[in-house]
Design a protein that fits this description.
By secondary structure, the chain is α/β, with parallel strands linked by helices. It is built from twelve helices and seven strands. It has one domain: Vaccinia Virus protein VP39 (Rossmann fold), CATH 3.40.50. It has a seven-stranded mixed beta sheet with strand order 3-2-1-4-5-7-6. Strand 4, helix 6 and strand 5 form a beta-alpha-beta unit. Helix 3 crosses helix 4, helix 7 packs antiparallel against helix 12 and helix 10 crosses helix 12. Bound molecules: S-adenosylmethionine. The site of S-adenosylmethionine has 22 residues, from helix 1, helix 4 and strand 2.
């Protein structure tokens, strides 16, 4: 995936609308691990925080509240559609300490030591030129402060999504470390090396479990396909009608393995990455 494809994946009105619709589901799935991410960013009153790949602003809002009215969050995203939603959300929530920028994080051009903290929920794995970008992020963070990020752990630990990508776009899973994608930062050793190469210190990577529950395999698959944005939606749209029907059948069979009589329970795993810059 190159930079332009990244925009193609996320920067559509539809992607942003679907991301908004899935807020409650996201809160249920990621609410607890997001609180850990925010805690580990060690935000203080009056801090200036960078939120990388803000999406529709779920974690932006939490950070904005944590730093108080005199603090500030700069929420950046490569997608104009996502950032438009962040602006609307902040307006409707009466939050005035968030500024937004439509930009690829790799191109962010601000003076050294601009930010007091950085957060990135489920976005770093989509970044091209990761080593250069992590090096730049290190430079623009103040000494003694921290970046806290969540990424997806390995495909096998995430059956809520991995089979879907395996069926729709096998190469997204088979080449996890080679190029940006859902699982490109899923190996702790690889993540550790990337941050080390970029100069980061006190790098800690922790696996955290999540679980989702649905009523049945069929409803999960249909709902997931209909409401997904990003890589899943793009992979789905590339199939013809017959391929889509075959994929649905195959996926329902796969997910029936996780069904018990009353529900479908799907485990998942994320990595919480915490890295600092010495003071
Ligand atoms: C999976 S979404 C996560 C959104 C949000 N952080 C959340 O957790 O709800 C990934 C986001 O990263 C953004 N993104 C991907 N590559 C990016 C890049 N190079 N620079 C800035 N944002 C990027 C996408 O546009 C998308 O909004």
């Amino acid at each position: 995936m190159n930079k332009n494809q990244n925009i193609y994946v996320w920067d559509t009105q539809e992607a942003a609308e679907k991301w908004v619709q899935k807020k409650n589901e996201r809160d249920r799935l990621l609410g607890t691990v997001t609180m850990h991410m925010i805690e580990q960013a060690k935000l203080r009153l009056d801090d200036h925080v960078l939120d990388i790949g803000a999406g529709t602003g779920d974690q932006t809002l939490l950070a904005a509240k944590s730093v108080g009215a005199q603090g500030k969050v700069t929420a950046i995203d490569i997608s104009q559609s996502m950032i438009s939603v962040v602006n609307q959300v902040m307006k409707s929530e009466n939050v005035s300490n968030v500024e937004t920028m439509v930009i690829d994080v790799a191109k962010l051009d601000v003076p050294e030591e601009t930010f007091d903290a950085m957060i990135a929920r489920m976005s770093l794995m989509f970044v091209d030129e990761l080593e250069e970008t992590l090096t730049k992020l290190y430079q623009i963070l103040k000494g003694g402060r921290t970046l806290s990020a969540l990424v997806w752990s390995k495909a096998e630990a995430n059956p809520w999504i991995a089979p879907i990508m395996q069926v729709l776009r096998p190469e997204a899973v088979l080449d996890p470390l080679g190029r940006p994608g859902l699982f490109s930062l899923s190996e702790p050793d690889h993540v550790q090396r990337q941050f080390q190469l970029a100069g980061w210190e006190e790098i800690q990577i922790q696996k955290l479990s999540i679980t989702q529950e649905y009523s049945s395999a069929e409803s999960y698959v249909l709902n997931h396909i209909q409401t997904s944005s990003g890589p899943t939606a793009v992979a789905w749209a590339e199939l013809n009608d017959q391929e889509q029907q075959n994929a649905l059948k195959k996926l329902i069979e796969i997910y029936q393995q996780y069904e018990t009589s009353a529900k479908l329970s799907l485990p998942g795993e994320v990595l919480l990455i915490v890295a600092s810059k010495h003071g």
